From TrEMBL:
PANTHER family registered for this protein in UniProt: BILIVERDIN REDUCTASE A
Stored InterPro entries: Gfo/Idh/MocA-like_OxRdtase_N, Gfo/Idh/MocA_Oxidoreductases, GFO_IDH_MocA-like_dom, NAD(P)-bd_dom_sf
Domain GFO/IDH/MocA-like oxidoreductase: 153-216
Domain Gfo/Idh/MocA-like oxidoreductase N-terminal: 2-118
Pfam families xref list: GFO_IDH_MocA, GFO_IDH_MocA_C3
Protein name: Gfo/Idh/MocA family protein
Gene3D superfamilies the record matches: Dihydrodipicolinate Reductase, domain 2, NAD(P)-binding Rossmann-like Domain
Length: 321
């Protein structure tokens, strides 16, 4: 079992602590949180071992799970890497692209593995259909959330939209050609609602909308490709695949047939892939353990996290024009 320690015991950090404690792939050694009152409370309530400094925790483990505010990701990662420890970094990977690139370079130099916590990659609705998403040419996503003060210190792009950016980049095998976006600050000092149009070199277009001031929660993506439409509901964890194929010469009574202006007939049929319930955060942490133990590439690499951050900042830069 890999010895793991958690940096940061806030809302998400406590979830990581609980799941790592349950995991059969890790031995939870303890945690460090700079806020003494919170650290003492977490240690007393859950029985986790509290460390007095980051360096002491890093020295005691094989893997460092960094669940601190984004501003400190870089410094925590650098210290862990230089100590020869593998790192799991919550999203976004860091505060700036330059910091992320330094983390990548150090990880290569010290031969350590790193994974970024883009948890939607492990959402069962997404994993159920990802292999069927092949060369999508139009993508539409909506990630809407009711207002929550937590996370409003950064633009909605880094708080919410970056989830969809990463998922999109994972299925579009092409470089980003251009980005256009608009954002509005309603309650916060930074944009609370944003829309971006991402164009890729292969012609694919992604229209991405995120809001943290909505009346209801929604996390949906739609992928359109040749002869197929695929929908993913990350929130309700359901998915649907609508496909078209050449219509049979003699359609059945219940076959759904469409005919275009050229007279070509297509049959529409529906698939509802099995979605197996899971805990996506536990799955991503366990997948990282597998990558370390088997010396394989993590599912969400440091490079993946950096590219998502790069596109996120291209979107944010559009707000300043």
């Amino acid at each position: 079992m890999l010895k793991v320690g958690v940096l940061g015991a806030g809302h998400l950090g406590k979830i990581h602590l609980r799941l790592l404690n349950q995991s059969e792939k890790y031995q939870l050694v303890g945690f460090y949180d700079p806020f003494e009152e919170n650290a003492n409370k977490v240690a007393a309530e859950f029985g986790y071992t509290k460390f007095d400094s980051i360096s002491e925790l890093i020295a005691a483990v094989d893997v460092v799970d960094i669940v601190t505010p984004t501003l400190s990701h870089h410094d925590c990662a650098v210290e862990a890497i230089k100590a020869g420890k593998h790192i799991f970094l919550e999203k976004p990977i860091s505060n700036t692209v330059a910091e992320a690139e330094e983390i990548i370079a150090l990880a290569k130099e010290y031969n350590i593995k790193g994974q970024v916590g883009h948890v939607e990659r492990f959402n069962p609705a997404f994993t159920a259909v990802k292999n069927q998403i092949q060369n999508p040419m139009f993508i539409e996503t909506h990630r809407l959330a009711e207002f929550n003060p937590r996370g409003t210190d950064v633009p909605v792009v880094l708080d919410l939209m970056i989830h969809d950016i990463d998922a999109i980049l994972s299925v579009v095998q092409s470089k980003v050609k251009s980005v256009n976006a608009s954002g509005v600050a309603v309650i916060s000092d930074s944009p609370d609602i944003a829309n971006a149009r991402i164009e890729f070199e292969n012609g694919c277009v992604a229209n991405v909308t995120s809001s943290r001031i909505s009346m209801k929660n929604m996390r949906k993506s739609r992928f359109f490709q040749k002869d197929a439409y695929i929908s993913v509901d990350y929130l309700d964890k359901v998915c649907e695949v609508v496909k078209m194929k050449d219509a049979p010469e003699v359609p059945g009574d219940f076959d759904m047939i469409l005919q275009n202006a050229e007279g070509v007939k297509k049959q529409i049929y529906f698939e509802n892939p099995d979605v197996h319930a899971n805990n996506a955060i536990l799955d991503e942490l366990n997948a990282f353990a597998d990558a370390i133990n088997n010396n394989t590439t993590p599912i969400v690499t440091l490079e993946d996290g950096t590219e998502a951050l790069r596109v996120a900042y291209q979107i944010i830069d559009c707000f300043k024009k």
